[in-house]
């Protein structure tokens, strides 16, 4: 995708752009070189608003307020289960998926598998 060609809804999925999935988990240190580079790249692609929208959706689904809260989730099994249940409910509502909790989970998991193929 060329710089500035971000009119498409799925431009954030471009694996050559600022949302590309790397080989390593990104650090949360705001002063690190990779973080500074990523911010420059995000700005160069003029995707700041899209980033904020996606970040806010993820934060809402995870019921967190900042990235550092993710560490708390990772290390707390009961909280992971509560967040997972909440996430499936919200995603089901977002995509108009109806049914029992198990049916909603199965449909979302099925969609995720298709998306990964």
- Helix share, percent: 55-70%
Portion in beta strands: under 5%
Average pLDDT figure: 81
Provide the structure class: mainly alpha
Task: Quickly count the helices.
Answer: 5
The total of beta strands comes to 0
Shape: globular
Sheet having the most strands: none
Q: SSE order in H/E notation?
A: HHHHH
Radius of gyration: 16 Å
The low-pLDDT segments are none
What is the first-to-last residue Cα distance?
A: 21 Å
Describe the structure.
With 117 residues, this protein is mainly α. Among the domains are: 29-62; 77-116, no CATH class. It is built from 5 helices and no strands. The protein has helices at residues 33-44, 48-62, 69-74, 77-94, 101-116.
Ordered list of secondary-structure elements with their pairings:
Layout: H1 33-44, H2 48-62, H3 69-74, H4 77-94, H5 101-116
Task: Throw out a few tags for this protein.
globular; mainly alpha
Short description:
This protein is mainly alpha-helical and 117 residues long. The chain contains five helices and no strands. Helix content is 57%, strand content 0%.
